[in-house]
């Protein structure tokens, strides 16, 4: 029969949680990357600059983020994760809440500046092209869950293409903010959702 020490962890060592020092270093590095992104643009987010501002050693930064673009990705991803909502099953409410999260992202200096940088560089830099794809997958996952769930329940046509639906919902917000440079409020979000539902849900 194994001893209590043997069952605590591999090789008899007790299991340990995440290292709080590593978590603090990561948070400090990402905060510094976010500040540099807003203040000076994507080209200022370098390992040297982040190390100088955060106090985190360059060796540690390179270990966690071998490429500076990965720092930008994680800085934006933090904002995206905070903008997502948990679906409730109410189609209109879920779409409004998720688009409100996108609206907040597009008006947030860190995520807006980061998204502009990624879009700008993606056509010429494979690293940023991969970064754009990663951010799109993360940013659209709740939309997919909501839309696919509604199709299964009969709230939306089963043959509605999910990617096209996401384009119809998120596209106007992205265009209005990132290309037209215009601010908008929750009324605009609700109008986009209601136009989408009139076009598809009542079919």
Chart the SSEs and their pairings.
Blueprint: H1 4-8, H2 20-40, H3 47-54, H4 58-64, H5 68-83, H6 91-106, H7 109-122, H8 126-153, H9 162-179, H10 186-200
3D structure, described in words:
This protein has 203 residues and is mainly alpha-helical. The chain folds into 2 domains: 19-66, Homeodomain-like (Arc Repressor Mutant, subunit A, Orthogonal Bundle), CATH 1.10.10; 77-200, Tetracycline Repressor, domain 2 (Orthogonal Bundle). The chain has helices spanning 4-8, 20-40, 47-54, 58-64, 68-83, 91-106, 109-122, 126-153, 162-179, 186-200.
Record keyword descriptors for this entry.
0% strand, disordered N terminus, 203 residues, Tet_transcr_reg_TetR-rel_C_sf, Tetracycline Repressor, domain 2, mainly alpha, elongated, 10 helices, 2 domains, Arc Repressor Mutant, subunit A
The number of domains:
2
Shape designation: elongated
Q: What's the total count of β strands?
A: 0
The chain-level mean pLDDT equals 88
GO molecular function, one term: transcription cis-regulatory region binding
Domain HTH tetR-type: 23-83
Region (Disordered): 1-21
Pfam family, one: TetR_C_11
Short précis:
By secondary structure, this protein is an all-alpha fold. The chain is built from 10 helices and no strands. InterPro entries: Homeodomain-like_sf (IPR009057), HTH-type_TetR-like_transc_reg (IPR050109), HTH_TetR (IPR001647), Tet_transcr_reg_TetR-rel_C_sf (IPR036271), TetR_C (IPR011075).
